[in-house]
Amino acid sequence: MSYDSDHSVSMERLAGRYRYLEREGLLPLPVKDGVTLVVELRHAEWAAECLNLLLQHSGAPITLIGVAMDEDFPLPPLAEAFSGVTFIPYEPRNYGVNKALAYAGSSFVALLEDNVMVSSGWLGNLLWPFIDDPSVRVIAPRSSTELGETRERLHFGTEEELSAYVSHSLERRQGGWHEAEVLAGSCLVFTRELLLRIGGFDSALIQRQLMVADWCLRARQLGALLALSEAVYVHALQPLPEAGEAAVPDGVQAGELAYLAKWGLGSSPVKLEAGLLPVPADVPVLLPRPVIPLGTAAVAPVPLVTAVVYSERVLTPEESRESRLRLQGQQSYGNIRWIWVRDSRSGAFPEFPVREQDAVLAVAGEDSWLHALEKVSAIYGSDIVVYLSASADYDSHYVERIAEAVRRGSADLVVSGSAAAAAEPAAHRALPGLFPVQLPLERIAHRSGVVPGRITKRQMYSRSLQLEPEPSLAIGYIGGPAGPNARTQASDGEACI
């Protein structure tokens, strides 16, 4: 989709914009409650000028929040100079941007780096595409930090030269914009409604451009349209390279690998310095990625466990609710992300409410359901993945016990057996033979990064699933609990583990 600069199209667009303003009484800016501007503070030499220009040229009632992104950033001088700005100090192991975004109360939010220099009219003109097409939920201006062909490396000697170029661009391009596959630049504007639906930015990706690109891909999964403004340009200052600065900064490669793994892109090349970033071709149909909670994330006292819950039979809404409450209420482990996978054709497994970090995955058809169970662990990454059956009754320490076995043992995949089995996991590798190893899915856990294998229905048990693990995996076995909780079979065929 593209809003070009044809004269007739431009006149029609401008007429539509004026009618909107007249109807809403919002001359000259199309917002009622202002805009929240979140500024990432990394460059002490530019931050004050960035804030000055934002206050001078934004032209709307704005709420300005500055976030120190480094422990050494000199925040007190800025706080003294800008009394009307809220500042959030740097906190180790907490991504301050997500904390700042939690304070956004306006309909629109802008996220900028402190190297961005804006000119008059920048914000109002960026908001218009939201009015042109209600599907637009994210927009970015042209800049030197965007990706691909949209990257523009321009040089200006003075602020006056920059302002003259921006004014000429606004006049010549007549508010034009076009749809973008992904955005990753230093300035991003989006709706608060979208922010609340997909959450914050994934700091595990380390590099800011990867975090922004990942956030935009998650927005597309929810049907949001990404737009790049052809009319608005903001200038992003770039530091001069220092002598001997050829080494790759710590964590950069890890962030790139995490991005590629998260979106199933294999070993595709990532060249952010050249504006090149691989993007999956089928973003809207991929399984939804987890929500990143806004605000201050508490440091997890124990490793994160993703519990993948499935039902082998059609459950009524009441049975679904009871199984959810039972499974979540009975486990003593303190850091579980619950992922519920169901076949949407049945319509009997409701979209019950879950916490922000949890998810309900609805897929159509048995084959898609089994495929989703195989792939879900790669999408919702965590330290440990545990598979649970909605039809089973687990003792209160089951997740804690099997997660501890995975964490402390050497096996890639752990199977929970009966109380008579050995207390410690004994690892071995599946031996090639006439028949593949088949393990009950409801008793399995594996560590992060493991592709467990193929999931199928068990032929002898119509209400049970089995896993055929990858031959290269080391498999460990642990026993069940001792005492009154140790049951191996219940009535009506339900497994009790």
Folded structure, characterized:
With 497 residues, the chain is an alpha/beta fold. It has helices at residues 7-24, 44-57, 75-81, 96-101, 122-132, 159-173, 192-198, 208-221, 252-262, 317-330, 366-379, 398-408, and strands at 2-3, 35-41, 62-68, 86-88, 108-113, 116-117, 136-142, 177-179, 187-191, 225-233, 235-236, 305-310, 336-343, 359-363, 384-389, 413-416, 428-429, 439-440, 444-447, 453-457, 465-469, 474-478. The strands form 4 sheets. Strands 1-8-10-7-9-5-2-3-4 form a 9-stranded mixed beta sheet.
Features of the shown structure:
497 residues; single chain; 21% strand; elongated; 9-stranded mixed β-sheet; alpha/beta; disordered C terminus
Task: Please give the structural blueprint.
Layout: E1 2-3, H1 7-24, E2 35-41, H2 44-57, E3 62-68, H3 75-81, E4 86-88, H4 96-101, E5 108-113, E6 116-117, H5 122-132, E7 136-142, H6 159-173, E8 177-179, E9 187-191, H7 192-198, H8 208-221, E10 225-233, E11 235-236, H9 252-262, E12 305-310, H10 317-330, E13 336-343, E14 359-363, H11 366-379, E15 384-389, H12 398-408, E16 413-416, E17 428-429, E18 439-440, E19 444-447, E20 453-457, E21 465-469, E22 474-478
Widest beta sheet: strand line-up: 1-8-10-7-9-5-2-3-4
* Overall 3D shape: elongated
Mean pLDDT: 77
Strand content: 15-25%
State the helicity in percent bands.
Answer: 25-40%
What oligomeric arrangement do these chains adopt?
single chain
Secondary structural class? alpha/beta
What is the CA-based Rg, rounded? 26 Å
